[in-house]
Design a protein that fits this description.
Number of strands: 0
Helix content: over 70%
Order of helices and strands: HHHHH
Pfam family, one: CsgA
Organism: Rossellomorea vietnamensis
Number of domains: 1
Structural class: mainly alpha
Number of helices: 5
Strand content: under 5%
Protein name: Sporulation protein
InterPro entries: CsgA
Distance between the termini: 22 Å
Length: about 80
């Protein structure tokens, strides 16, 4: 699994119990066997993209504020492709 997607999957695990859409996105990562984050993003619906944009913006800021620059960098790799 692509490293960026591994970080994304970890982040999504915080949202899957309360959010059906995040659970579906997480399932796509688990079952999709995507070669890259680009292939994953191309498989998302507009609704999934909008939801991920919001979550990733918050998670990237949190990672950077906590000094986890690697996590912020990896999540940003997915975030940039959403646009």
């Amino acid at each position: 699994m692509d490293q960026n997607l591994a970080y994304l999957r970890e982040v999504l695990s915080n949202y899957t119990e309360e959010n059906d859409l995040m659970r579906e996105i997480n399932h796509k990562i688990e079952q999709g066997h995507y070669a890259s984050e680009g292939a994953f993003v191309r498989d998302l619906s507009e609704e999934e993209i909008r939801s991920l944009e919001s979550i990733l913006d918050n998670e990237i800021n949190h990672a950077n504020e906590a000094g986890d620059l690697e996590r912020g960098y990896q999540l940003n790799g997915v975030f940039e492709l959403l646009y």
